Amino acid sequence: MANIMKTLKLAVIGLVAAASVTGAVSAQILIVDDQRVEREAAAYKDFNLQTNELRNNILELRKFVTRGGVVEQKLADLEKRKSIIGNDKYEAEKHQLEQQYVKAQNALQQLEYTFDKLRQEAMVQVERARQPVIRTILKEHKAQIIMLKRLVLGSAAGLDVTTEFIEKLDAQLPNVTISLPKQGAAPAAKPAAKTGDQKK
């Protein structure tokens, strides 16, 4: 009987200790859904809006040069017509397609480099704005750490401060300033436009 009572006391002490640890963790660790922040925060939306045309040009050029893309399909079609159009015509059209491929590939590399550079500019601004937001939330919640949701296997209810984080980040950084190229995007997209005209 004494052993049973001793076991029960130890179990109760263990539960109290576990509850205390859970309470301490709840007070010290906050969770932010970074994927939701990237979808909903004003700075990210503004960046996507400003770079929309650039991203569309990149997608079009990728369709043109990637495996199974426009060039590969046109080359396959040309190969089928070789016996009909003759060798000279075949070689001329093939050379033309190869030139367009090289131009589009170069244009794609330039656009991707430009986009990465713009994204880095925006991320520097976001990171600067995030720091005071993080400090404010930690102070207000008397917490010690904010963890990204994708890195957490599980969390207690009430620890997610994503909405608050987004609101404070929006107030701190409603938009981003990036150095969009004035004349870079339009010329870079020309190879894709040419293939569209030829396809018609």
Write up this protein.
- By secondary structure, this protein is mainly alpha-helical.
- The protein has one domain.
- 76% of the residues lie in helices and 4% in strands.
- The protein contains nine helices and two strands, in the order αβαααααβααα.
- The protein has helices spanning 2-28, 34-40, 42-50, 52-65, 70-85, 87-141, 162-172, 185-188, 190-199, and strands at residues 29-32, 145-148.
- The chain has a two-stranded parallel ribbon.
- Helix 2 packs across helix 7 (162-172), helix 6 (87-141) crosses helix 7 (162-172) and helix 6 crosses helix 9 (190-199).
- The protein is elongated and about 80 Å long.
Describe the protein's topology.
Blueprint: H1 2-28, E1 29-32, H2 34-40, H3 42-50, H4 52-65, H5 70-85, H6 87-141, E2 145-148, H7 162-172, H8 185-188, H9 190-199
Parallel strand pairs: 1-2
Helix pairs in contact: 2-7, 4-6, 5-6, 6-7, 6-9
Structure summary, number of beta strands: 2
Biggest sheet, open or closed, and with what strands and sense? 2 strands, parallel
Q: Note the run of SSEs as H and E.
A: HEHHHHHEHHH
Strand content: under 5%
Number of domains: 1
In DSSP terms, counting alpha (H) and pi (I) runs of 4 or more, how many helices? 9
| Low-confidence region ranges | 1-26, 184-200
Please, what is the average pLDDT? 82
The chain-level structural class is mainly alpha
Give the neighbour order of strands across the main sheet.
1-2
From the spread of the alpha carbons, the general shape counts as elongated
Query: What proportion of the residues is helical, as a percent range?
Result: over 70%
Determine Rg (CA atoms, Å).
29 Å
Distance between the amino and carboxyl termini: 92 Å
